[in-house]
Amino acid sequence: MKVAVLTNAPVVLSQTTEDGEIEVRISGVTISFISRAVTLSDTLPIQVKSSSHPLYWFLEGIVGAWDRVTGANKGIGYAIVKDLCTKFDGAVYLTARDESRGKTAVSELQKLGLKPNFHQLDVSDINSINTFRDYLQNKYGGLDVLINNAAIAYKHSATEPFGEQAENTHRVNYFNLLDVCHSLFPLLRPHARVVNVSSSMGHLTKIPDQEIRNKFASSSLTEEKLSELVNQFIRLAKKDEHTKYGWPNSSYSVSKVAVSALTIIQQRAFDQDSREDLVVNSVHPGYVKTDMTSWGGHFTAERGAEAPVYLALLGPNISSPKGSYVWHDKKIVDWVHGPTPEAF
Ligand code: NDP
């Protein structure tokens, strides 16, 4: 079978079958095909009415499925895109807040023969998030994989006051991730997979106080209550009283604990969702050599991408991992009680 995919919209596929050449046009959310021999220049739209037609699934695999990674112009996000481009049967989007850095990353991947797409996305800008959502809605009508990778971490040498660090870290790592989810979750299709990149620092035992841990682990925790917990930490951090009240002295750690707690809440909601088989997990990618760790990690970015990509490509109707906290070796770690394996 010969297949040519032109990525400029509308997507056109040319396929040789036993019946002869078939020209296919996909416009917006409409999957179309022409069940007769046509020339390449014909792009007559005809809807696939039955999902039992073999072409339907063929097209679903190529066009209906697409994926997006936030903060992917470098580090683990870049390696995730690279790996997904070889393993994922659909369009892969590398997003970055800085268009020129993002496009440079895409052209590096193109030199390797890969075909990622690019779209600007600043997770700290709600207009940017919603612009991207509308683009995806119009072009694909849905979303199959979402990897929330973008995050920041202040260096130990940072001179900004701790309260300011706490506010900015949670803004990006927790609240902006939440914004992305609120905007893009309505696009998720049945069997969609969401990966929230957490950290070994996101294990619940990183919070010293048992009462606070109980609040994070509560089965009645909601997004609103979780955000309020996070805001409590920020308020105390601004008064430099956070350790006195049982919080750790690391904003990054609290932000990642919040991301893993959010993942559990999100899976609870997915389990009640009318869309079938939605799965979200959080992951510790390992201790990885990137800008974030000042290149002090033990793993390459490619190794760090392994568990996130595994979670992004979980097969249909799996029973586990689901709402889990997953280690870089793909094993599920008990987020509440531990123990936590070595971080690398
Ligand atoms: P990097 O600092 O190398 O990459 C972080 C990425 O996030 C960059 O692409 C950065 O873009 C992007 N980003 C930051 N803020 C925004 C924003 N507002 N909008 C869009 N993108 C943004 O870090 P890593 O690759 O190491 O980290 C990737 C993920 O892995 C993070 O979630 C991190 O917390 C997690 N992690 C990393 C570990 C490690 O050892 N490296 C260990 C455990 C977890 P820009 O270039 O524009 O700043």
Automatic annotation (TrEMBL):
Highest taxon in the source lineage: Eukaryota
PROSITE patterns linked to this entry: ADH_SHORT (PS00061)
Enzyme Commission code: 1.1.1.184
Gene3D superfamilies recorded: NAD(P)-binding Rossmann-like Domain
Enzyme's top EC category: oxidoreductase
Single GO MF annotation: carbonyl reductase (NADPH) activity
Annotated PANTHER family: CARBONYL REDUCTASE (NADPH), CARBONYL REDUCTASE 1-RELATED
Protein family according to the UniProt entry: Belongs to the short-chain dehydrogenases/reductases (SDR) family.
Protein name, UniProt field: carbonyl reductase (NADPH)
Organism: Timema genevievae (Walking stick)
